């Protein structure tokens, strides 16, 4: 397929990127939601989502690089143009944290939006690292992130 034939279907690059992101979300959202549904605790649900996100990147090897490029494009164009960016991961994290809040699993006074932002930043960081690490190094990074979520990363050794 040539760029000319792409523009037969899309009037401009913005429409093409929006369609690509919508398709990514259409594929990812059900998979991430199903992963989250397999666990009971907030931590286990988040870990399952991180694992499924990793599986998505294995199934779609260009996903991490595409997401990185989308962020770069958004920053290059400043306020003039902001691509929507993939939303599935953030949406699932928001659902999990919303459920945690409803169940009383968040400490009093905790801002759920701030929690979503923190977990999403961790997940986006993992996506960023996936684009540049070999599979073994990425798996170790993912395991460390899950230990961080579980509160076990910095336990058991000298403080």
TrEMBL record:
InterPro entries hit by this protein: Homeodomain-like_sf, HTH-type_TetR-like_transc_reg, Tet_transcr_reg_TetR-rel_C_sf
Superkingdom assignment: Bacteria
Molecular function in Gene Ontology: DNA-binding transcription factor activity; transcription cis-regulatory region binding
Alphabetized SUPFAM superfamilies for the sequence: Homeodomain-like, Tetracyclin repressor-like, C-terminal domain
Alphabetized UniProt keyword annotations: DNA-binding
DNA-binding is among the record's keywords: yes
PANTHER family on file: HTH-TYPE TRANSCRIPTIONAL REGULATOR PKSA, HTH-TYPE TRANSCRIPTIONAL REGULATOR RUTR
Protein's recorded name: TetR family transcriptional regulator
Organism listed in the record: Mycobacterium colombiense CECT 3035
